[in-house]
Amino acid sequence: MTRRILLLLLSIAMIVAFVRLGLWQVDRAHYKERLLAHSRQVVSERRPDVLYAAADAQDQANEADAYEWTVGGGHFLPLPPIRLDNQIRNGVAGIRVYRVFQPDGAQHAILVELGWRALPSRQEMPPEPAPPDVTQVRGLLAPPPVGGLKLGPEKIVPAKDGSLLLMRITPDKIADALKLKNGLAPRVLILDTGMKVGYKRDLQVLSGTLPPAAHRAYAVQWFGLAIALGVVTIVVSRRYWREARTPEGGKA
C-alpha cells in the first residue's frame, strides 16, 4: 500500500510540473507577442532616439529588452570582429558579424550587427574586412539574439586572426574579452537595411529563439501530458481502491 501511495504522489507531482511548464510556455508566448508588437511599431514609426542617450540609458536593466529606432554619429573602433555562430538564413548555415561602435558623447560602446554571411567551412573562417568607415549609423536597438543551449561556463577564446567566434552574444563578457574599460551597452544595434555596409540583414527580432506559435505548441503538449497522466492516475487509483474494498475472493 505504501508503494502505491508513493506512486500516486509522484504522479500528482508530475501532473503539477507539466501544468506549470505549460503555463510557463503560455507566458513566454504572451511576452514575445508583446515584444514583436512593440518592435514592429518602432520599425514602422521610426521615431529616432539619440544613439548616445540610448547607449548610456540610466536604467540598463529595464532597457535591455526594449526596442528603439536610433540615429547617431560616432566611429567603429579598431577591434576584432565578433561572430555569432549557428545562424541559419533561408536554410543556409552562417554567422552574424558584429563590430564595436563608439557613439559620439557616449560612455558605453555598442555592438553593431553588420549582417549575416554564409559559412562555407568551419575549418577556414573567411576573413573580415576592416571596420566600415562611416561616421553615422541608424537602425534598430534590440536585445542581443539568443544563442544555443548553454552548457557549462561560457568561454570566449580569440581565433588566430583575433576575431571572437561565439555561441551567444553576452555584452559584459565580450567587453571583458576586448578589454573595453567602460563596457558595452546591453543592447545591440541592427543596422538599417538601407545602409550600404556589411552583409545581408533584415530587421528581424527574436532571432535564434522560439516564436510565440512554437511556445503555444509546446504548451499544448505539456497540458496534453498532464491530462493523459491525470486520466491514467484516476483510472489506476479507482481500480486500486475498488480492489482494496472488495473482500478477498468476493465479487466487486
Structure description:
This protein is of the alpha/beta class. It folds into 2 domains: 1-45 and 210-252; 47-191, no CATH class. It has 5 helices and 8 strands; from the N terminus they run H-E-H-H-E-E-E-E-E-E-H-E-H. The chain has a 5-stranded mixed beta barrel. Strand 4 and strand 5 form a beta hairpin. Helix 1 (2-45) packs antiparallel against helix 5 (212-245). The mean pLDDT is 81.
SSE order and pairing:
Blueprint: H1 2-45, E1 49-50, H2 51-55, H3 60-63, E2 68-76, E3 82-89, E4 92-103, E5 109-118, E6 136-142, E7 164-166, H4 171-178, E8 184-191, H5 212-245
Parallel strand pairs: 1-2, 3-7, 5-8
Antiparallel strand pairs: 2-4, 2-6, 3-4, 4-5, 6-8
Query: How much strand?
Result: 15-25%
Count up the helices. 5
- How many β strands by DSSP? 8
- The class by helix and strand makeup works out as alpha/beta
Helix content: 25-40%
Q: Which regions have little confidence, pLDDT < 50, spanning 5+ residues? A: none
| Average predicted confidence as pLDDT | 81
Distance between the termini: 19 Å
Q: What assembly state would you assign to the polypeptide chains in this entry? A: single chain
Radius of gyration from the alpha-carbon trace, in angstroms: 26 Å
SSE pattern: HEHHEEEEEEHEH
Q: Please give the domain count.
A: 2
Strand order of the largest sheet: 2-4-5-8-6
**What is the molecular shape?**
elongated
Q: Major β-sheet, in short?
A: 5 strands, mixed, barrel
Short précis:
38% of the residues lie in helices and 23% in strands. The chain is an alpha/beta fold.
Provide key terms for this protein.
single chain, 252 residues, alpha/beta, five-stranded mixed beta barrel
